[in-house]
Design goal:
- This protein has 193 residues and is α+β, with helices and mostly antiparallel strands.
- The protein folds into 2 domains: 95 residues, Orthogonal Bundle (Arc Repressor Mutant, subunit A), CATH 1.10.10; 82 residues, no CATH class.
- Helices cover 53% and strands 13% of the residues.
- The protein contains 7 helices and 6 strands.
- The strands form 2 sheets. Strands 1-3-2 form a 3-stranded antiparallel β-sheet.
- The radius of gyration is 25 Å and the shape is elongated.
- It starts with a helix and ends with a helix.
- The structure holds zinc ion.
- Zinc ion (ZN) binds next to loops.
Length: 193
């Protein structure tokens, strides 16, 4: 079973190669939800003899705990879901997992929207404020708004040097370009590359 390239890249970003292997198992078990134990065993079987080892510091090639962590990463990215059932003999919960890969494009578009909102609000902040900096302490990256600089008598609280107006046109320009670029980017094609 091959994953589509978009999904594959996204899984890799979320949880490296293990996430791709877990993704394959979730797709292979589309008709019946699968436990984390079975996912682990299936992957171990699949990578046997290939030299792939997800746990180089351990004698096992893949630990159940690694698979669980990966499944929770998929869950928090809204790409997987689970239900749990209490095992009557042991009293422990058994987790059954399934994928929600059909929502992938929606999730990516949502991410793009969030980036755009962050950039816009940063741009507004830069455009609506006039900043003052101490040129002697520039490595500290401290910026003061007009009100703050006024209260400090335009003196740097760290070294006593003068606070000077900062030209933030470059930052504004940079943010504007980023916004246009992000808007133009087809995030789905980006992941297919
Ligand atoms: Zn200073």
């Amino acid at each position: 079973m091959e994953l589509n390239p978009l999904l594959k890249s996204f899984l890799f970003i979320i949880g490296n190669r293990v996430a791709i292997e877990v993704g394959i198992e979730l797709i292979n078990s589309e008709n019946a939800d699968i436990t984390d134990e079975d996912i682990t065993e299936n992957i171990k079987e699949r990578i046997e003899g290939t030299g792939i080892d997800f746990e180089p510091e351990d004698s096992e090639t893949l630990k159940l705990n690694t698979v669980r962590k990966t499944l929770y990463k998929l869950y928090s990215e809204k790409l997987a879901q689970f239900r749990r059932i209490r095992d009557k003999s042991t009293g422990w919960f058994i987790y059954y997992w399934w994928h929600e890969f059909n929502f992938l494009e929606e999730i990516l578009l949502e991410k793009k929207k969030i980036i755009q909102e962050k950039l816009s609000s940063r741009l507004k902040f830069e455009e609506n404020n006039y900043f003052f900096i101490c040129k002697k302490c520039t490595q500290q990256n401290m910026k003061y708004k007009f009100d703050e600089a006024f209260d400090l008598n335009f003196r740097c609280p760290d070294c006593g040097g003068p606070l000077e107006a900062q030209d933030n046109q470059k930052i504004i320009q940079f943010l504007k370009e980023k916004i246009v670029l992000n808007e133009k980017t087809n995030i789905i094609n980006e992941f297919k590359k």
